[in-house]
DNA sequence: CGCTAAACGGAGAGGACGCTCCATTTGAGC
DNA sequence: GCTCAAATGGAGCGTCCTCTCCGTTTAGCG
């Protein structure tokens, strides 16, 4: 009956840790969050360690792979995504729900440089993300269905278009986070305008949807190894 | 009166080269084109040299910096961009001209992975690109003006939106070039649909345009150095 | 307070890449 | 063919990054 006796230790089992270790773990996570947001995923591990004020060994002991660190760092954001979708599902107006999801998620993406990569990438050990992503995907599919049923979303909108939006939004790079956000907002406004159903030009067919969903995006960000 | 006596040796002066050197230069350029397209800008120089079947020294002698190589490799594409704009300017239908430019350039971008980065980046020694980019930009501004005058393009479309399109399109990453093209086409169709003037919802204002143009995009692709 | 396992940090091995130096090869004019 | 400047290729050095090993420090417990 203890609060912490749950058998599934999500997101990670930190119960057996000494208090100093726990403290350092927090500092690492905070430092990594900062570093990823400003420099992007792929900052040297040593830089994260330095920002956290710990040695590299401590970093590696706690997070053996870069991916495990990323997974943990973005756990919050992933959960935030899920709640965004959940909130939208509770909205009585289907179109507003649909619109809000895209707007909010894209804003998150624009604000945090590393988030795009983390969100779009399926890491081998990011099973936690996997589960949440699937849940978000399901919820979004439902939102899509409702918005179409309400006649507000064009009928040929596909699930893959969400990926398209996220990739497009992820392409935005700017000097400052504010500039990125401004640009993102405008892009999203343009796209949402097109997503709306419009009986006037229903006869102009869209090019086919790309053949991928979120899970087809392995290899992001682009590798650059030799051939 | 000689054919080759032009004082401005654009894009590069290769006149004094021995035939074998010239031959190797071609092989390097071809190899680099391939490598950039598939692996992206930033492939190891050694990989380019290996593909070209030359030593690294040969590569460096011909192209002292990575940027000079990129400049040369993408000279063709840059010229192609300019012609696309020129063709569009010759089109009697302003909207079709506008639309075609965006479609064609985005298609080029989607087909060649390195092109985005090369196009968006202002390299110190890429003065050649600079000139062509300015020309393309001017032409596009004129196209925009005409399309607006014809009432086909929404009045609040800004030059910066072109950058937005290119960034968004550049965000597309896919396994194969075909998938990327498919995705790009769909994205572009969505965006163009929004760019069209529509008196029905002229009262819905767009978020402000991002405060940048093509030349504000230094730092693409994202650096990842430590802080 | 003292013991011990847990935690720590930094040095350094290992590897990728950028770029240069230099001994050797080769094209081109005589 | 002979000569020599031009061209070549790969060895090698410096740098940056990942990840591990190991001697030292410290929290937690009796």
For this structure, the quaternary state is homodimer
Order of helices and strands of chain A: HHHHHHHHHH
> Runs of chain A with pLDDT <50, length 5+?
1-9, 122-126, 214-227
Average pLDDT of chain A, rounded to a whole number, is: 82
Radius of gyration of chain A: 20 Å
Q: How large is the share of residues in beta strands of chain A?
A: under 5%
Q: Tally of extended strands of chain A?
A: 0
- Biggest interface, chains and residue tallies: A-B, 56 and 56 residues
Overall geometry of chain A: elongated
SSE inventory with pairings:
The structure is a homodimer of 227-residue chains.
Chain A: H1 19-39, H2 45-52, H3 56-62, H4 66-73, H5 75-90, H6 94-111, H7 113-120, H8 127-149, H9 160-170, H10 177-195
The first copy, chain A, binds a DNA duplex (30 and 30 nucleotides) through helix 1, helix 2 and helix 3.
Please supply descriptive tags for the structure shown above.
homodimer, 227 residues, mainly alpha, 10 helices, 61% helix, disordered N terminus, disordered C terminus, DNA-binding
């Amino acid at each position: 009956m203890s609060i912490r006796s749950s058998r599934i230790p999500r997101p990670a089992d930190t119960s057996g840790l000494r208090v100093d270790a726990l403290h350092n773990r927090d500092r690492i996570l905070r430092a990594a969050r900062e570093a990823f947001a400003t420099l992007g995923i792929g900052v040297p591990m040593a830089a994260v360690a330095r920002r956290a004020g710990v040695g590299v060994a401590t970093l590696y002991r706690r997070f053996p792979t870069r991916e495990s660190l990323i997974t943990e760092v973005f756990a919050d954001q992933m959960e935030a995504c899920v709640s965004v979708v959940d909130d939208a599902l509770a909205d009585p107006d289907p179109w507003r729900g649909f619109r809000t999801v895209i707007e909010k998620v894209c804003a998150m993406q624009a604000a945090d440089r590393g988030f795009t990569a983390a969100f779009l990438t399926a890491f081998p050990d990011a099973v936690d993300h996997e589960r949440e992503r699937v849940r978000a995907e399901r919820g979004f599919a439902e939102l899509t269905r409702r918005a179409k049923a309400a006649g507000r979303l064009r009928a040929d909108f596909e699930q893959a278009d969400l990926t398209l939006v996220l990739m497009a939004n992820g392409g935005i790079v700017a000097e400052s986070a504010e500039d990125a956000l401004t640009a993102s907002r405008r892009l999203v406004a343009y796209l949402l305008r097109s997503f709306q159903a419009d009986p006037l030009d229903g006869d102009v067919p869209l090019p086919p949807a790309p053949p991928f969903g979120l899970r087809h995006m392995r290899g992001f960000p682009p590798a650059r190894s030799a051939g």
